């Protein structure tokens, strides 16, 4: 009587399939790596061209030559012959002041909108969000008239006060506060904490990651602002860094070496701030978007 034997899957049939899958995965990874490197090189090309042009003479910037003599004359001229350090200082004063004050006020507003219950809360939040649809050029004239009525034209106050309000910051903080467990607040209330101590001792310490990421965004936005400083300042002593670079372009239209050196100096603080805060920036965006 013949015996039935169970067909066996030999390892020799399995190994080629696994080998093919591994080969396909390896090729896919190589293709994705090449695409990523290509995108990175395209993105970094303007920065590399800016850095290289800042160390060249103005006549060699658009010459198309790769290897030309490098010099630091452009940086020496920008830092000594024009008030570029003053422009950097003004930008630092405005950016840091706006960032600190905005984080304090925005966290208060966001906490109230996320945790407190009062009539018109949702309507107020909707009105705040609606301001994100209005661009700066639309409100430039009425905002200038208000600042002029307040006597803040050609002052640091005129540069700082209108830049404090930011609907995106309030929105981002509110979304973050919605994720904080209510048990923490209830425990603090049992210990006798009122709203001011609850906000200062419980909410703010828990908000350090999102405040750090927002601080990076506010600093970068105000450091690179141009339209409002152009409208509100006439005194060159109050010019920020972007106005200073713009004045270089108008006064030395053929001296691109000076312009590129100024642009590179202006980009250094933004790169440093971004590198210091990029971890909190990415983490907070992921957390606030989860609810």
UniProtKB/TrEMBL annotation:
Residues 1-20 are annotated as: Disordered. It comes from the Bacteria. It is a multi-pass membrane protein. Residues 88-277 form the ABC transmembrane type-1 domain. Keywords: Cell membrane, Membrane, Sugar transport, Transmembrane, Transmembrane helix, Transport. The chain crosses the membrane at residues 29-52, 87-113, 125-150, 156-177, 198-221, 256-276. Its main location: membrane. Gene3D superfamilies: MetI-like. Pfam families: BPD_transp_1. One of its GO terms (biological process) is transmembrane transport. PANTHER family: ABC TRANSPORTER PERMEASE PROTEIN MG189-RELATED, ABC TRANSPORTER PERMEASE PROTEIN MG189-RELATED-RELATED. This is Multiple sugar transport system permease protein.
